[in-house]
Specification:
Layout lengths: L1 H12 L8 H14 L3 E7 L3 E8 L5 E3 L5 H4 L6 E3 L12 H4 L6 E8 L5 E9 L7 H33 L4 H35 L6 H28 L8 E4 H17 L4 E5 L6 E4 L1 H17 L5 E9 L7 E8 L6 H4 L11 H7 L5 H11 L3 E7 L3 E9 L10 H4 L1
Parallel strand pairs: 8-10
Antiparallel strand pairs: 1-2, 1-6, 2-3, 4-5, 5-6, 7-9, 10-11, 11-13, 12-13
Helix pairs in contact: 2-5, 2-7, 5-6, 6-7, 7-12, 8-9, 9-12
């Protein structure tokens, strides 16, 4: 019964086809580097076989469960270590030991589901007898926890994707689901961010700074996912009519310069140039600084994504009118791929991009522009786009320069 429950839990995480995950591969590589072994794997133990989600130096996608060292590891609470397989009666006639692979050393830390079912292991293999020292054992344990958190996140993301499709057409129900699931995603994601920071500190303490780039990739990937989750939460609040503005005075020039400084490295990733055009007398604004900043960041980063070796221009001006409140006009122009009129239909709808091939080629969730327009509407403005295929796009955002101090209600844009 326990094994059947374990296999049932495993099926919640994976379908028949396993997809390799870059973060798991980075964790396996780091384990091999720190422990000095030629092989490191993230395994999944199924009924009759073991398959690998990450493979450093092994070169096989699966093996029989009968020869799996990890099948023994999942029965342990902590690290399962075999210093010399030829001296261990459980493995001395194992084909991985006696055959071409020539395994002599094994160490594995089991990884479990949130419910406590062990489904696989992060393991190390070597062709010579050896033992891990205390630092290596501690690091392997930390990495095992990181693998476990990553697998949990992948499971939650898979569930989110499946439920998103099922909830199509039920906007309010979808919003409630996304809010709940986004909160659920935070638990494993915060664990990933926490463990990656711990590993970075451990690497520095042990003079292993050469591993910092890989750990940085893991941490940055986690931060990116956290941004996506925050976007989903914001979207659900807007659709539920619960998004509020937090009004405060701030300097418009300072805001533009801050956004430029933050987004410039992203713009330059595709060999683009960022230009800023704004007068020094823009004055101050009274509004939601965080949301205006996020809108500008979304617009510029969107332009950077679809522009290569081109120019992105962020401009701002204040429109003063007699007898009416001032309006701040922000424009983001790019020299990127541009869009046809058909591609612009639905551009500001959540979870959409110009076309499916755009998502495959450039990535993204399709949330950024939807949130940007929703925030602009909340702030008494709007976002419009002009575009020419092959020449580029121009996004214009208008927002009130001096908003009232009473928080706005999102009901008008939630429908």
């Amino acid at each position: 019964p326990q094994e059947e429950a374990r296999l049932q839990a495993l099926r919640l995480y994976f379908q028949e086809e396993l997809v390799r995950d870059e973060d798991l591969q980075n964790l396996a590589q780091y384990a091999a580097d720190v422990c000095g072994t030629p092989v490191s794997l993230v395994s999944v133990i199924e009924e009759n076989r073991q398959r690998f989600l990450a493979d450093v130096g092994f070169g096989q996608s699966e093996t029989s469960r009968d020869v799996s060292f990890c099948a023994h590891a999942i029965l342990e609470e902590g690290i399962f270590e075999v210093p010399d397989a030829l001296a261990d009666p459980r493995f001395l006639d194992n084909e991985l030991v006696t055959g071409e692979v020539g395994v002599r050393f094994y160490a594995g830390i089991p990884v479990s589901t949130a419910e406590g079912f062990p489904i696989g292991a992060l393991c190390l293999l070597d062709t010579v007898p050896r033992q891990l020292d205390a630092f290596q054992r501690r690091t392997l344990s930390l990495l095992g926890s990181q693998v476990q958190s990553r697998l949990e996140l992948l499971r939650r993301m898979r569930e989110l994707e499946m439920a998103k499709v099922a909830a199509e057409g039920a906007s309010r129900s979808k919003s409630l689901f996304l809010a709940n699931m986004s909160h659920e995603l935070r638990t494993p994601l915060n664990a990933i961010l926490g463990y990656s920071e711990m590993l970075q500190e451990e690497a520095i303490d042990q003079n292993l700074e050469e591993f910092a780039p890989d750990l940085g990739k893991i941490h940055n990937a986690g931060k990116h996912l956290l941004t996506v989750i925050n976007d989903i939460l914001d979207l659900s609040k807007i659709e539920a009519g619960k998004m509020q503005l937090y009004i405060e005075p701030f300097d418009a020039v300072g805001l533009i310069d801050e956004v430029a400084s933050t987004v410039r490295p992203l713009v330059e990733t595709n060999a683009n140039t960022l230009q800023i055009e704004r007068p020094d007398d823009l004055g101050s604004m009274i509004g939601d600084l965080t949301k205006v900043r996020q809108c500008l960041f979304n617009l510029v980063s969107n332009a950077a994504k679809f522009t290569n070796r081109g120019t992105i221009t962020l401009s701002a001006r204040r429109e003063r009118t007699d007898g009416a409140d001032d309006v701040m006009i922000f424009r983001v122009a790019d020299t990127g791929i541009g869009m046809t009129p058909d591609q612009m239909v639905g551009l500001f709808q959540a979870f959409t991009q110009a076309e499916a091939s755009t998502t495959r080629r450039f990535g993204g969730t399709g949330l950024g522009l939807a949130l940007t327009r929703s925030f602009a509407l909340l702030m008494g403005g709007d976002v419009v786009v002009e575009s020419t295929p092959g020449e580029g796009s121009l996004f214009t955002m208008r927002v009130g320069a001096e908003l009232p101090s009473v928080p706005s209600d999102a009901d008008s844009i939630a429908a």
